[in-house]
Design goal:
B: about 350 residues, globular
């Protein structure tokens, strides 16, 4: 049995602790690197040199900066307003349908790299949640707080899940470039970001199917919870009266 | 550890990776100048210094290697990285002031231009993919259009340039205006723009420190390296759990992949790298959906939407996350092995 040397793992502990204590991630990562180098007895200047070499070798990660001028220009001329009025023009009656449509559009646009088109402050709070709530109110009348919260939470979840599982298809997104840089750094050649993006598609489709299936059942869940709520109310009311 | 490069791939290219880095360097330096000109910027000097240090690595890095050799270059880059981390860590990097048109003006121009506004943005991925597939071998007198080792990035650069020109035609806003406007986006991303690169760097340090070997030793204590299915489960679940602890799949990725995926699955069982890492990262995202550590996605919206239970967004996401994690495990097991 060779001896188990756990000292190189100290950097991981630093990262976990640093993230948990909410220090700035750049600082946490640098300190984790320094501590790891120190733990394995690396000479300081060699360690700094390693920092520099690895940082330079990962420069392709910054290529997303080249996209930003295009997006910024379109935003300067009302891209977000365009997206908002597009979402607002969705005329489908039910909560589930509004959320499903948003999910599909959001996932597809994330796959095209249009991440900043929507988001919690930009679209979920001002548009999606109110529209989903409005549709449910039209159908069931005034909603109690816990059902409102459930629908709003679903609106936020839609945005998260759609973006997460759409964005990795876009080859210039940080995650894809990070994977690409990692493979090259580990001496695994011949993989293009395009391959990685392609292999993100099956899970993206699975996410679409799984979540749309759950949304399809949301409508029934709202009805059921409304029913329980009304029953409870009439129950307490009749108790008070008797 | 640079990989051996055969002579024919060293043929020069118009959009070589070094030229792309120079271009990025110029873009960042342009933003530095714009930051210095911003009179309403609360942390003008330190923010400009932050981006200057970052831009220098792109603009002067390769030149410095040619003139002073790699070891001096890597050291000044290394010290710059520490300074970048320190500036960010002390909260010295912030947003500035930007003269965006008012909402009413944006509304008017959005109605004037209409859906054509989407064209430049949608062009980028489409042109990138088309160029990658069609133009990757184009060369005149052995000078390639695209860097043969970085075809996708070269195609992306070309796509961005074309999109800028099309955007100019559609909006009448010049590429120079586009660059100035991008400062708003870059500043709003802020230090997070550099995080992936820092994590890749940490991954590199882990390789030197043989952290992966330590994880491998740990893994073999619990699982037989011959058991393919359990290795896949361990990698996917490990990505999810580690992401939940750190709140960030990017941070979990280098550690888990170097510790489990590369030695056991790629080297041990000849697994195909592209689907392995793509699905592995997605397993990490399943973790992101289930952790309060990813506050931006899970806790902030709960506050924005005025939810009574601040964990409700997470609770709604858990069923989808767990189902997708299971699907990822089966999918990965099904596609990565070629034999």
């Amino acid at each position: 049995m060779n001896e188990l040397n756990l000292l190189p793992l100290i950097g991981i502990a630093v990262v976990v602790l640093g993230f948990a204590l909410r220090f700035n991630p750049l600082l946490v990562v640098s300190i984790a690197g320094l501590v790891t180098g120190w733990a394995v007895d690396l000479d300081f200047l060699t360690l700094i040199g390693t920092f520099g070499e690895k940082f330079m070798n990962a420069r392709q990660l910054a290529s997303f900066l080249l996209i930003l001028p295009v997006i910024a220009l379109c935003e300067r001329y009302g891209l977000q307003q365009r997206a908002k009025s597009w979402i607002a023009s969705i005329k489908s009656a039910t909560t589930a349908r509004i959320l499903s449509l948003y999910f599909v559009v959001r996932e597809c646009s994330a796959a095209l790299g249009l991440l900043s088109l929507a988001g919690h402050p930009q679209t979920v709070r001002p548009l999606l949640a109110p529209m989903a709530l409005g549709a449910a109110t039209n159908l069931h009348g005034p909603l109690p707080k816990h059902i409102k919260d459930m629908i709003s939470a679903h609106a936020a979840a839609c945005d998260n899940i759609a973006v997460f599982f759409g964005e990795d298809i876009f080859i210039a997104f940080g995650a894809v470039l990070l994977m690409d840089a990692f493979l090259k750094e580990n001496g695994i050649e011949g993989i293009e970001p395009l391959h990685i993006g392609l292999w993100a598609i099956p899970t993206a489709i699975a996410a679409l199917i799984v979540h749309l299936f759950r949304l399809a059942r949301l409508e029934a869940k709202i009805s059921q919870q409304m029913q329980e709520h009304t029953n409870n109310q009439t129950h307490t009311l009749s108790e008070k009266l008797s | 550890m640079s990989a051996p490069v055969t002579t024919h791939t060293e043929a020069s290219a118009v959009l070589s990776i070094n030229n792309i880095y120079l271009l990025i360097g110029f873009v960042v330096m342009f933003l530095v100048v714009k930051t210095l000109q911003d009179q309403g910027h609360p942390k003008k000097w330190t923010t400009a210094l932050f981006w200057f240090l970052f831009g220098s690595v792109f603009l002067f890095g390769d030149l410095s290697i040619k003139m002073f050799g790699p070891s001096i270059t890597y050291q000044w880059v290394g010290f710059s990285v520490l300074a970048i981390a320190l500036l960010a860590g002390l909260g010295k990097v912030s947003m500035g002031s930007y003269d965006m048109p008012t909402d009413a003006e944006l509304e008017i121009s959005s109605n004037r231009i209409g859906n054509r506004l989407f064209v430049p943005a949608v062009m980028i991925p489409i042109v990138t993919v088309v160029c990658t597939l069609l133009l990757n071998n184009i060369n005149i007198a052995n000078i390639y259009l695209f860097d043969q080792r970085h075809v996708t990035l070269a195609a992306l650069t070309l796509a961005c340039t074309l999109a800028l020109l099309v955007g100019w035609k559609i909006t009448s806003g010049s590429p120079l205006l586009a660059l100035s406007e991008s400062r708003r986006l870059v500043d709003s991303i802020g230090w997070a723009a550099i995080l992936p690169q820092m994590l890749a760097m940490l991954g590199g340090v882990f390789i030197v420190a043989q952290t992966g070997t330590a994880i491998q030793d740990l893994v073999t204590l619990f699982i037989s390296p011959d058991n393919r299915f359990m290795l896949v489960v361990l990698y996917c679940v490990g990505m999810a759990l580690f992401t939940m602890i750190m709140g960030n799949a990017f941070a979990a990725f280098p550690v888990m992949t170097a510790g489990i995926a590369v030695p056991f699955l790629i080297q041990g069982h000849g697994a195909s790298p592209a689907p392995l890492v793509a699905i592995g990262m997605y397993s990490g995202y399943c973790g992101t959906l289930m952790t309060p550590m990813a506050a931006n996605f899970n806790i902030v919206p709960a506050a924005l939407l005025d939810l009574k239970d601040k964990y409700q967004v997470i609770k709604v996401q858990i069923p989808t996350a767990l189902t997708l994690l299971a699907i990822n495990i089966l999918l990965m097991y099904g596609v990565i092995f070629n034999d």
